[in-house]
Amino acid sequence: MVLKNLNIHLRFQGLINSLDALLLYCIQSTGLIQMNLSPKSQTTRLIERIDTVEKFRDIAELCEDFRSFVDEISEWGVDHIGGVDFYGVGFELNEELDIPELDRYFGSFGCTPENPHPTSRFFNDHVQIIHY
Predict the structure, then answer these.
(1) For residues 57 and 131, which has the higher predicted lDDT (pLDDT)?
(2) Under a CB-based contact definition with an 8 Å cutoff, are residues 48 and 82 in contact?
(3) How would you write 5-36 as a 3-class SS string?
(4) 48-96, pLDDT tens digit by residue?
(5) Cα–Cα distance between 4 and 53 in angstroms, integer?
(6) Per-residue pLDDT, 2
(7) In terms of DSSP H, where are the helices of 31-129?
(8) From the CB of residue 84, how many other CB atoms can be counted at a distance below 10 Å?
(9) 44, 38 Cβ separation under 8 angstroms
């Protein structure tokens, strides 16, 4: 009985594989469906989504780096944008994201850790104390 079920399963699986191959051939030969073989990176998707959503863009303009942005919007309960999770394992940033590229993106608005926004976590490190 086990061999008979296995034989039926293998024939059925072979039929599915044949149908998949036929469907793929029809799609490729007609050109009606364009297949994107180079999917966007998670970093690119995240940046594009931030650029298209005004409230995300407004916050991004005030943040010096990706970590600051994540900290700010986490207060709203947001832990992903555009299907891209901010966190990987535990509370570490997603290892599939290009953090240096994201930091450059956020720095392109003018605020950087070296030139922080006055409400930034970096600001107190750069304030000179003047004694009278």
Answers:
(1) 57
(2) yes
(3) HHHHHHHHHHHHHHHHHHHHHHHHHHCCCCCC
(4) 999 999 999 999 988 888 998 999 899 989 999 988 999 988 878 899 9
(5) 57
(6) 46
(7) 42-52, 54-60, 66-74, 99-107, 123-126
(8) 18
(9) no
Specify which residues 85 forms β-bridges with.
Answer: 80
Q: What is the pLDDT of residues 4-35, one digit of tens each?
A: 554 554 454 554 566 666 666 666 676 665 54
Residue that is written with structure tokens 């780096």 in the block: 65
User: Residue 56 is which amino acid?
Assistant: F
In terms of phi and psi (left: phi > 0; alpha: psi -120 to 50; beta: otherwise), the region of 110 is left
pLDDT score for 73: 92
Q: Which of 70, 69, 53 is nearest to 61 (CA)?
A: 69
Quote the tokens at residue 89: 């394992």
Which residue is associated with the tokens 């298209």? 52
Q: Say what the pLDDT of residue 36 is.
A: 46
Nearest 5°: CA angle at 125, between 123 and 131?
Answer: 100
| Residue position matching structure tokens 């999770």 | 85
Domain limits of the chain? 1-35, 42-126
